[in-house]
Design a protein that fits this description.
The protein is 31% helix and 29% strand. It has 10 helices and 12 strands. Strand 10 and strand 11 form a beta hairpin. Pfam families: BTB, MATH.
């Protein structure tokens, strides 16, 4: 199972739109999705109904969010008017918190979509990239889980309360250090070195059945899945990279080589169909590339010759 896409819908009935004067706006309530507050606004300007989509994330830390979004206006009879806006980016260091446009002519909106002065609008959003946003934990491994655990793993001074048997069943590494007979590995607490607590949280969420994988978390999860030899985590990361990731082919081929992800490698090669595709993956040192990939790409380059 791959991680679900970061998608959501803001639905709003804007009341008494017919009473809006030129330059006036009406705002929706703020809704939180993926730990970020959002809202929409409609207004009347230059003979049009305007629509704006706002990110209300506080600018106290550095962050960036890139989205694709689509606006849909519905009539009472089911008639639909829609417009897409691709790849809008919101940043903590920008003065702009909203993006929008003249959505539909005011007279067309009044004639075909307004009902008793009201209109119904949906804003469909897909988050393509999100950095610097601290997301909520999908599962807790803190002291509240102590009655269900028999070992505590310490990562960067953070304690994770875990079932020794479950973790050992997923990982040959943890089986060797948690299920042996030596006195050292019978300790209640075990400290893990060279590991970030944030990455370890995502890693545990994944093997416990949650879906924390996205383009921001996958590098850390893959690294730990490789170190701790966890096949199920590797498989789920590979499936995400094949089906859902927005990473470039070059980035995916690097990961395929580093973690021996053969299905990902084959998938990337199959998607290279043009000279531009070839240039994009040949744009780094050949020594960094999988020799079998270099061979396959050279064959493709010959086939693409005029």
């Amino acid at each position: 199972m791959t991680a679900p896409a970061k998608e959501f819908v803001l639905r709003q009935i804007f009341k008494n739109i017919s009473s809006l004067k030129e330059g006036e706006e009406q705002s929706s309530p703020v809704e939180e999705h993926f730990n970020v507050p959002w809202k929409t606004k409609v207004g009347r300007k230059d003979g049009h109904l305007t629509h704006f989509f706002y990110c209300e994330q506080p600018k106290t830390t550095e962050w960036s969010i890139t989205v694709d979004w689509e606006v849909r206006l519905f009539s009472i009879g089911g008639k639909l008017y829609e417009r897409k806006d691709t790849e809008s980016t919101y940043k903590s260091n920008s003065n702009y918190t909203g993006w929008g446009f003249n959505f539909i002519k005011w007279e067309d909106m009044e004639k075909s979509y307004m009902v008793d002065g009201d209109i119904m609008i949906e804003t469909h959003v897909k988050i393509k990239k999100m950095t610097g946003i601290e997301r909520k934990k999908l599962r807790n491994f803190d002291e509240s889980m102590s009655e269900f655990s028999d070992v505590v793993l310490i990562v960067e001074d953070e304690k994770f309360y875990i079932s020794k048997l479950f973790l050992a069943s997923q990982s040959s590494y943890f089986k060797s250090i948690l299920m042996g007979k030596q006195e050292e590995i019978q300790k209640r607490e075990v400290t893990l070195e060279n590991c970030k607590s944030k990455d370890f949280q995502y890693f545990l969420e994944l093997i416990y059945g949650e879906s924390p994988i996205d383009d921001e978390t996958i590098d850390g999860i893959l690294g730990l899945a490789g170190i701790y030899d966890v096949p199920i985590a590797m498989r789920k990361c590979e499936e995400f990279l094949i089906r859902d990731s927005e990473k470039t082919l070059k980035e995916k081929l690097r990961l395929a080589k580093r973690y021996d992800l053969n299905k990902l490698k084959e998938n990337c090669i199959s998607k290279i169909t043009t000279a531009a595709d070839l240039r994009s993956v040949f744009s780094y040192d050949f020594s960094e590339m999988d020799p079998s990939v270099v061979g396959a790409l050279l064959q493709k380059s010959i086939a693409l010759l005029p």
